[in-house]
Amino acid sequence: MVRILKPFSAVIATMLCLGLATADTATVSVLGDATYTIPSSRGKVCKGTGAYPSGTACPLKGDGASGGCREGLPSYKHGKCVAPKVAQCVLVSDKTWGCAYPKGGTNPKSDYPRETTRRRLPRERLRTRRLP
Fold it and tell me: Which one, 2, 76, 83, 125, has the greatest CB density within 10 A?
């Protein structure tokens, strides 16, 4: 019978947990920003060459950087890097796919314009009027 001391069992359990936690992640860099580790549950990371990327997963707003964080980057704030908005999978060069932040402010409404076909009428025009 093998007897394992309690301190060693805690170390072994921690190592197993860390190994399992890192197995379900992938790293991806954002153009002009840091590198992020994202869970594989979001799908394959955005990368590849040619007409289509091999995956489309990019960092989401609020994701913390796992590497390459430094002052002057769009995500740098108070000594750490956090994605300021949702990155998109785009062509970053002629045929190379990668993650990049949309141009413009951090307001999601300005970053992703909505398609509208109808104009909203003022409230007073919505009321039914009696004809004479």
Answer: 83
Q: Where do the structural domains in the chain lie, given as residue ranges? A: 24-102
List 54's β-bridge partners, or say none: none
Q: Which of 94, 24, 85 is nearest to 58 (CA)?
A: 85
Q: Which pair of tokens denotes residue 85?
A: 């908005």
- Are the C-beta atoms of 89 and 53 separated by less than 8 Å? yes
Could you tell me the pLDDT band of residue 76, with boundaries at 50, 70 and 90?
very high
> pTM of whole model > 0.70?
no
Collect all residues with Cβ–Cβ distance below 8 Å to 101 and sequence separation of at least 6.
30, 31, 32, 33, 74, 84, 85, 87, 88
CB 38 within 8 A of CB 25: yes
Please write the tens of the pLDDT for every residue from 9-49: 554 544 444 444 456 999 999 999 999 999 999 999 999 99
